[in-house]
Design brief:
Elements: H1 18-28, H2 36-46, H3 51-73, E1 75-79, E2 85-90, E3 95-100, H4 108-138, H5 147-161, E4 166-170, E5 176-181, E6 186-191, H6 196-199, H7 202-232
Antiparallel strand pairs: 1-2, 2-3, 4-5, 5-6
Helix pairs in contact: 3-4, 5-7
Length: 236
């Protein structure tokens, strides 16, 4: 998965001579042909937005963009109950960081795989809570009344129908295989050699697992992109 680019700050300065421009535009209507374009311009200039209204809209847009930037830049951290494993994911659910503490060595393969799953679930819970807060502050999408909203609803339905699909990867050293679902969530970790942390150190294992997860997530994201593109094509 490729993280979304940070949104650019919203900037639109109301000209100092805004009111003069309105007056000049009204005067110009007296010397242009009275056709459909003239009628449209006349309606707009009859009641143009005030400077205060434009500035208020600018402030609201700037606040919304700042909120979106904070949401996209957020990182969500989860630990297993014994604090042996740390997982950090971003707003898109992409794995950003995986760490094993010194106590991870005593867990054994099955215990370590369980710890990764529990830490991931905790990070996902934190991410879901953040998404809920963001949605409540910005307003939820409509009920699919517009074409764009209907496309979003159709994409969500298509993703839900294919959540059983898995995208696998193996670490470079061949010690671990894993899988994620279509939404990039980790679903499986299997160590292929006994006592894996006797064969490699915890830092190397974390680095190789992170790289493998990100490859699997990239494969999943490519399919999500294809699904989205097929549905958005309907909008022309």
């Amino acid at each position: 998965m490729t993280p979304a680019e940070d949104p650019k700050p919203f900037e639109f300065a109301v000209p100092e001579d805004y009111e003069r421009h309105i007056d000049e535009a009204r005067a110009a209507l007296d010397v242009v042909p009275r056709n459909e374009n003239w009628e449209n311009a006349q309606r707009v200039l009859a009641d143009p937005p005030s400077r205060e209204a434009i500035e208020a809209a600018q402030r609201e847009a700037a606040e919304a963009m700042a909120m979106l930037a904070a949401f996209q830049q957020a990182r969500h951290t989860g630990y297993d109950p014994d604090q042996t494993t740390k997982v950090v994911i971003d707003a898109a659910g992409e794995l950003r960081e995986l760490e094993f503490g010194v106590d991870a060595v005593r867990l054994g393969n099955h215990g370590l795989a369980d710890a990764i799953g529990l830490a991931w679930a905790a990070a996902q819970d934190a991410r879901a809570e953040s998404q809920g807060d963001y949605t409540s502050r910005t307003g939820a999408l409509g009920g699919g009344n517009t074409p764009a909203e209907q496309v979003l609803a159709d994409i969500e339905f298509a993703l839900s129908a294919r959540e059983h699909e898995r995208f696998g990867a193996t670490t470079e050293d061949g010690l671990t295989k894993l899988a994620v679902n279509l939404r990039g969530r980790l679903t499986e970790v299997v160590f292929l050699q006994n006592n894996v942390l006797n064969l490699t150190d915890r830092h190397t294992l974390a680095e190789q697992l992170t790289a493998a997860v990100q490859r699997a997530q990239s494969d999943a994201a490519a399919v999500v992109g294809e699904i989205g593109a097929a549905h958005y094509a309907r909008l022309g």
